[in-house]
Amino acid sequence: MAISPAAQPKMVNDGKPPLVNGRLKLRVLTKSMLAIRVTLIALAVLTVIGFMTFNYQEVHLLKGIATTFVNFKTIFASPQFSHFTFPEAVHQLLITLSLGVLTTLIGALIALFLSMLAAENLSNKTVSNSVKGLMAVIRAVPTVLWVLIFAVSAGLGSVAAVIGMSFHSISYLTKAYSESFEELDQGILEALQGCGAGWWQIICQAVLPSSLTSIVSWTFIRFEINFGVSVAMGAAAGAGGIGYDMFMDSAFYYNLHEMGVITYMILAVAMLLEYLSLQMKKRIRA
Amino acid sequence: MKQHFLMKKRLSFLGFLLVLVGIACAAMTMTQFSIANSFSSIPKAMIWGCSNFYPTADSFTNFPDIMLKLQETLLISIASASVAAIFAFVFALLGSQVTKINNTLAAFSRFIANVFRNIDVSIWALVLLFSFGQSSLTGYFALFVASFGFLTRAFMETIDEVGSGAIEALRATGAHRFSIIFQAVLPMSMSQLISWVLFMIETNIRAATLVGILTGSGIGFIFDLYYKRMDYHSASLVVLAIVVSILVIEQISNYVRRAML
């Protein structure tokens, strides 16, 4: 039987030794090398074009950078409360955290069902692909736009913020959950099907118990992300919480000292959450 | 015994659920979030969206403006990710376990990456607004700093994962630090690093919308403009432009990732 051309080993440079001017060429231009080079060149060119076309509005670059360093010094070296007190700031921080919690829980609940449809071993290919496609479209709309779009009918506030922020959580968690479902041993599913177990029985007795650790870990990792998102939504979409105070200090009071306090508080919480979610990631890999 | 085991399992699961419900209730009172309101707002939003939030022929007169801002935003996202990648690579080399120069520098670069990553891009935008005003540079630097923090971390992990084998072998031959970097570290991790940069560009485009709303530049600004004017038809055109560009960029970077393997 003749070997098909596709099955033959691929010859770099048609099997000839890559000689250039009598010297052995150490690196041969393969397809992947070419792709890397083209990508690098394209990024470099686009970066240069970007710098040439930016709308500078007569801002002096070096002066701006110098002012930025001075501002950073003010922020980090002399934080000080003026418009609110420490307990109030903690209260606002708790509101931001609560927004994150609600978003994560709603996202997790909906994603749990969608991920069962998106996992290829639990549903069929058509359903799985259409759910994944829907998630890609949802992810393409930035969170802040989801929140603002919902704010038109629901009014600015926690309801619009939580619903708008949930969209990205749903899409992120659906992907994460369905991938952990797909890791499940096919033999277990077949064994249960062979016993005559229904779909729900398989989900409840095999799928959920075996992927519970990774579900909990992914949910927490998303919570870490959602904390950052809810800070941003407080600033940009009137969701309240510490992000809104930050926005007011920056855009209306021009109070760098108070921004310093807020930055430190957010940084502390974010680092704590990151430490915890790193622990969670280790549990997924184990 | 068996009964007892199942009972215990169920009870602990029930306890876990109760704790979650408790946290949810606390969070709801904290933020004055009402489930009833949110359920009723979803169909309301859908009806509103179908009747108001679509581009009309009229809104297409704004199309050139939108495209101009979109182009600016895309370029800012790409430029910030690319330049941040260069800085991040240097810091990642200093911080990685296999290529570090000494422990003090490694700890320093890890600390810098940690601080930069954990301060959200919105905070950077608000801080930079003081010094750069409503120019593209505010958005550029905000995205740059956020990309730098994230990429340093990602690059560090990539370099660590690439493995110390080849690096040790080169070091044993007495190779200079720069030849180790350019002959072993870079070629082995290049496709991974580019893949991270592409991911960063995608993230930056989404973040650029947010930064634009906060700082008044780029595509976020033009959305905010139409949104506040209640010109929802034009605003929907902006959303459509963002969605299409993000999906296209995702396709391009997926293609590049496959070609690089």
From TrEMBL, chain B:
Domain ABC transmembrane type-1: 70-253
Membrane topology according to the record: Multi-pass membrane protein
Principal localisation: membrane
InterPro entries per the UniProt record, alphabetical: MetI-like, MetI-like_sf
Location of the protein in the cell: Cell membrane
Family classification: Belongs to the binding-protein-dependent transport system permease family.
Residues annotated as signal peptide: 1-26
Transmembrane segments: 74-94, 177-201, 207-227, 234-253
Heme found in the keyword field: no
Keywords: Cell membrane, Membrane, Signal, Transmembrane, Transmembrane helix, Transport
UniProt cross-references to Pfam families, sorted A to Z: BPD_transp_1
Protein name (database record): Phosphonate ABC transporter permease
UniProt keyword Transmembrane helix, yes or no: yes
Domain of life: Bacteria
Organism in which the protein naturally occurs: Sporolactobacillus terrae
